[in-house]
């Protein structure tokens, strides 16, 4: 096995793991990496593979929240429990479903065209858009907690997530901006963002099982795939923890500055060197 090939896949795994949870667009970074270093993974299933690794890391970070919600849903449906916790988590789950519907529909309709022929210059512009959106909510301190969510809030966050189908627009950034714009406090906004990531990512993985099974590169690239998967898993875990700390300390502006810098660089590079 070519050591350079392994290093390339590990690098892509690290890039995915770091950038997927934080609001800087992992898809945009993959476009930039491909352009700058002529580095691109073979096989249709690779990006889905890495997204699944990020999903597992996020499931682990929020395992207690997920188990509590599932427990309360079980009590709500099978035990007919109508106490405050059971009702709250039932409603919360409904809001997650509502917020998932728009991107689910749009993702299926556009799955064959999203990401095709995206240039580094286009990604740069979208990173600037992400930076501006993050700048506007950097000092926002909402008062709503999980129980304060409404159907309207869920629809707004769901529509914000649709925008993130565009490479260069961060999914976590778009949903974070949407969540904070409707008044959620930082902790509740971040929780909603990552719990919302789960059905979207899981749905993508399930509808892409055929692509993974039929990918002719799987057998030949088993080792690079496995190593990049592990790197993504670990990197995503620490990136989520870092983002939680950043949000707690009110330093969201650093992601805005980063998007401005990388977006400007991407645009200049595209129009000068490409």
Automatic annotation (TrEMBL):
UniProt-recorded Gene Ontology molecular function terms: undecaprenyl-diphosphatase activity
> How would you describe this protein's topology in the membrane?
Multi-pass membrane protein
Query: Where is this protein found?
Result: Cell membrane
Q: Where are the transmembrane segments?
A: 49-71, 92-111, 117-137, 189-212, 218-240, 252-272
Reactions accelerated catalytically: di-trans,octa-cis-undecaprenyl diphosphate + H2O = di-trans,octa-cis-undecaprenyl phosphate + phosphate + H(+)
> Under which EC number(s) is this enzyme classified?
3.6.1.27
Any coiled-coil regions, as ranges: none
Name the source's superkingdom: Bacteria
Family matches, as Pfam families: BacA
Top-level enzyme category:
hydrolase
The protein, known as:
Undecaprenyl-diphosphatase
- What organism is the protein native to? Salinicoccus sediminis
Q: Which gene encodes it?
A: uppP
